[in-house]
Each structure stands twice: as C-alpha cells, then as structure tokens.
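Supplementary Methods, section 5.1.

A reviewer requested that the exact input to the structure prediction be made available. We therefore reproduce it here, unchanged from the version used in the analyses.
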Amino acid sequence: MRERLFLVLMYAVLGAFALFCFIPFWIVFINSFADESLLQTAGYQLLPSKFSLHAYKFLLSGKQVFLSYGITMIVTIAGTALGVLLTAAYAYTLSHRKVKYRHILSFLTFLTMLFGAGLVGFYMLIANWLQLKDSVWALILPYLLNPFYAFILVSYYRTLPYELNEAATVDGANDLYIFFRIIWPISLPVIATVSLFYALQYWNDWYLSLLFIDNHKMLPLQMMIRQLMSNLNVMAYVSGSQTQYNVVVPTYGMQLAIVCVTIGPIVFVYPFIQRFFIKGLTLGSVKG
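The structure derived from this sequence is encoded token-by-token as follows.
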C-alpha cells in the first residue's frame, strides 16, 4: 500500500513538473499565432481568442530568413559531422595505452579549458592568418575540437576492454580499421550524445558570426534574428526592399514566431536520438 501510494505521489509530482515545463513552450507556440492587437492589449494567453498569421508572413516575406536558415543548416551539419569525427578520433588517441605521449596530450588539452589565447589572438588567427573572414569555415573551424566533449569520449573508451584491440591486432587489423570498424560501432550511444552537443552548439551560435561575418548573405540564423530585432528598418532588412517606415511591425508576435522557427529543427530531431542521449550520459559512469 505504501509503495503504491509512493508511486502515485511520484507520478503526480513528475506530471506536475512536466506540465510546468510544457506551459512556457505552449504559450510561446500558441501566441505566435495570436493577433498582434490582442497581444498588446491582453498579453500572453493559454488560448488566444483571435488568431493571425501576420507574424509568420512578415518574418518569411523576404529571402533573408531562408538564406540564414541555409547557412545555419550547412554549418550545423558539416560542423557536427567533422567535429564528432575529429573529437572521437582524438579522444581514442588519448585513451589508447600504446600512445607514448597521451598524458602530455591530455594535459595540454585540459590546459585549453583553463586558459585561452584571448579575443585579439583568436581574431588574428581566423581573420588575418587563415583568411577565413566572411567564410563558412569561420563558423565551423573554431568549434571542431571541444576539450570537454573529448574527455567525455575518453572516459567511455577507457571502459572498453583493451582485449578488443589486442585481438584485432593479432588478426592483422591496423589502428584505422580498429577504430572505424570496432570502436566506433560500439560507441554509438556516447557519440550520439556528443553529436547532439555539437549540433546545439553550432545551431545556437551567434558569436562567431558577430566577429567574422560582415556579408549579410552569410549570416546564420541566430545572428540574423539578432539583427532583425535590433534593426529599426526591419522591413527593409527582411525583404531587401527600399526603406519603408510606414510598415506596422508585429513586434510581440514576431518575437514568438522567431523562437518557434529557431527551435523547430532541434525539437524535431531530439526525439530520434533521445534513447542514445540518455544511454550515453550514463555510460562510463562509476559502477557499483
């Protein structure tokens, strides 16, 4: 009886917490379709009495949103794929017993988490030395190897039995074959977790574009939104048309529509990798 009462109480608390987390998303989503005049007079509501698509029509009225969406998709897909491949390979090197200088490499990797080159040195490296200004690579290259993600992979690789490597080596397999055909398949849960981390990092980033992108056609989605909300001539920016100061901008509705447009892909992708994400977080932990 006590156990059943405890389960009912636990489910009630978890349900209330889930509802508490869901309500803000619902308010943002449903009010993005609300009429602008209703938002200005009545504020945000759980179920608006008057709906309108004016905010979405205004936001999608020009080509800038689609250009920025394309840049963000390219950066996220390419950056995640390259970042996961490079980080997984580097972490495998740090965890391999036969790598002579793995401890020195681990220390140098950890050192980058504590100290950085500073903004001036970072900008000179990307913009002046590598000549990547106004380039997609300026949005991808700086995040390709994250030390924290590398150590997550290292902690998982060290839980794998080293006999797998020895058996494959006896059979004549080289290190590349062992990594891609043996280690990589059995590490999919933690690799999926790191992939999600990289995808979120690239998708939500606006800092690199603020530093290195001046061409408005190369602006990613997050920076485009920042420009859109801070630009006084919003209509001219979105549609690329001439200045129009007599346009009524759906300020509140557009802010909510921007949030929905921005988080949409991540929300749709997350359910497909949720099981890998949860399993990957627990792998490599201390076992009792």
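Residues 64-95 form the longest helix (32 residues). These observations are discussed further in the main text.
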